[in-house]
């Protein structure tokens, strides 16, 4: 036994209990009632009485060093994985998006080269941006990459899949025992709404608010509704990424009740931010797709996570995972929306690089706004951030739980410790934070990744390159 974590509180549906967790090499070797395991002479012992002990968080939706919106997202695998560890994320799933003409195999190789500096374990979903990519689905699923992404929007990036391609992609994932992740926003109507609002006069008057005004809830809901129909008729497993609307949650719930194989994630930003952020001078910084919505959507999404039903055992709530959709851009990058000179200029919201930083704050946001505020049990938090990401993304045989034989990915949290979010003290290269000034609990004190101490007393100590690619297989 190399390490013994003694007496940490593990939260299951049966309630919180103190446990001793022994680690040998990269794996958990024993999980036993607190105080029952005797360490060896060379064992490093961590006294964890009174601390919460969680499996390492798995963020299944991340974009590091992504060429997008005329720039490249500012966090790469080096800074992004530091931010991840500081927030208790020990595994992340990025998106390998083929650049023009690339095959899925080539995109995978490009992302392998990018990830050499990662401090966390990693994998990615493969984006289907051309019809030819469908022919590779079967082979890639067998290589340990069983999840694929289709974008309904981003035609200007060359990423958009049309309806026919989405339908065929669902047929192909059904055959390959894979899953299709879909960015669901209705492209044609959205384009019309954007074109109508895209006048210098309106841009001068309304600025970045046009981003929200051109993305009413039905843009997401209608897209989710259609793709659910295609999943139902093809049997292709469907996963709605970054769901942001109450209507979306209602549709997913109804489809699940009919037996459609659809899962849904939401992201931390849709649970704590609403579109009033666009009424501040820095509003444009918050532009992301889909956009943060209204307080009523926030309430419905919490409910969809199981927030009204702390001890639910009868049904799985409709949203099974919370991720971040991390896609960080600095103030300077976000400033690309400015057109013209200081006197006559104005902001063109369609030029803002879309996305937010989030890896370091995912766990603290759910811990504070979910658990500490009484909306979620700790056991449900562990399901949403650890167990379900592992289970639904093909890592469930060795990650996401504190169980003998599993990877020793673990997080220790002092439940009483609180911090005020300040981007200056964070690990992202982003020079702002959407959560600046929020008081949050749940920042990890200690993090282990495959048995190695990677955060000690809140400091990231893992060297770049110590993360490992994780082949995945869906059941
Ligand atoms: O605004 C976002 N979400 N940027 C990243 C790309 C995407 O749509 O996931
Ligand atoms: Zn997306
Ligand atoms: Zn994304």
Architecture overview:
The protein has 475 residues and is an alpha/beta fold. Helix content is 29%, strand content 22%. The protein has 14 helices and 23 strands. It has helices at residues 77-86, 104-114, 137-142, 163-176, 187-197, 200-206, 209-213, 217-234, 246-257, 268-272, 295-304, 331-334, 362-372, 378-392; strands at 3-12, 15-24, 27-33, 44-47, 52-55, 57-59, 67-68, 71-72, 89-96, 121-127, 147-151, 179-183, 238-240, 262-267, 321-323, 338-339, 346-347, 410-413, 418-420, 439-441, 444-449, 452-456, 459-460. An eight-stranded parallel β-sheet has the order 6-9-10-11-12-13-14-15. It has a five-stranded antiparallel β-sheet with strand order 5-18-21-22-23. A four-stranded mixed β-sheet has the order 3-2-1-4, covered by helices on one side. β16 (338-339) and β17 form a beta hairpin. α4 (163-176) crosses α8, α8 runs parallel beside α9 and α9 (246-257) runs parallel beside α11. The chain starts with a strand and ends in a 15-residue tail after the last strand. The relative contact order is 0.17. One zinc ion (ZN) binds at residues 61, 63, 325, 327. The site of one zinc ion has 4 residues, from loops.
């Amino acid at each position: 036994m190399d390490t013994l974590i003694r007496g940490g509180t593990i939260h299951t549906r049966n309630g919180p209990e103190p446990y001793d967790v022994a680690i040998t090499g990269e794996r958990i070797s024993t999980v036993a009632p607190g105080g029952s395991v005797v360490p060896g002479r060379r064992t490093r012992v961590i006294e964890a009485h009174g601390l919460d002990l969680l499996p390492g968080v798995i963020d299944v939706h991340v974009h590091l060093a992504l060429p997008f919106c005329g720039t490249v997202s500012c966090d790469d695998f080096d800074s992004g994985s530091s931010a991840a560890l500081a927030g208790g994320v020990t595994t992340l799933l990025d998106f390998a998006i083929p650049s023009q003409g690339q095959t899925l195999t080539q995109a995978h190789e490009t992302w392998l080269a990018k990830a050499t500096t990662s401090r966390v374990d990693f994998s990615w979903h493969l984006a289907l941006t051309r019809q030819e990519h469908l022919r590779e689905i079967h082979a890639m699923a067998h290589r340990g990459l069983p999840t694929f992404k289709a974008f309904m929007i981003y035609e200007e990036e060359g990423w958009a899949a049309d309806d026919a391609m989405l339908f065929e992609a669902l047929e192909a994932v059904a055959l390959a025992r894979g899953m299709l992740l879909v960015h669901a926003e209705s492209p044609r109507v959205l384009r019309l709404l954007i074109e109508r609002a895209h006048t210098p006069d309106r841009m001068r008057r309304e600025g970045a608010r046009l981003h929200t005004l051109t993305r009413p809830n039905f843009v997401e809901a209608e897209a989710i509704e259609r793709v659910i129909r295609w999943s139902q008729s093809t049997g292709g497993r469907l996963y709605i990424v970054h769901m942001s609307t109450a209507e979306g949650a209602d549709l997913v719930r109804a489809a699940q009740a009919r037996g459609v194989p659809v899962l849904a994630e939401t992201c931390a930003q849709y649970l704590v931010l609403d579109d009033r952020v666009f009424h501040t001078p820095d509003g444009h910084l918050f532009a992301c797709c889909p956009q943060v919505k209204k307080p009523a959507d926030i309430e419905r999404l919490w409910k969809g996570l199981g927030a009204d039903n702390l001890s639910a055992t009868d049904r799985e709530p409709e949203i099974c995972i919370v991720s971040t959709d991390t896609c960080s851009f600095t103030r300077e990058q976000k400033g690309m929306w400015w057109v013209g000179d200081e006197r006559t200029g104005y902001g063109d919201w369609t030029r803002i690089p879309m996305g937010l930083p989030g890896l370091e704050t995912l766990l603290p946001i759910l811990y504070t706004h979910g658990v500490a505020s009484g909306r979620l049990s700790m056991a449900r938090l562990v399901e949403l951030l650890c167990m379900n990401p592992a289970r639904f993304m093909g890592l469930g045989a060795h990650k996401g739980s504190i169980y003998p034989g599993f990877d020793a990915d673990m997080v220790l949290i002092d439940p009483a410790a609180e911090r005020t979010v300040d981007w200056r003290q964070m690990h992202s290269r982003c020079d702002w934070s959407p959560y600046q000034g929020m008081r949050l609990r749940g920042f990890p004190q200690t993090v282990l990744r495959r048995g190695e101490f990677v955060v000690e007393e809140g400091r990231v100590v893992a060297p770049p390159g110590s993360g490992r690619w994780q082949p995945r297989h869906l059941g």
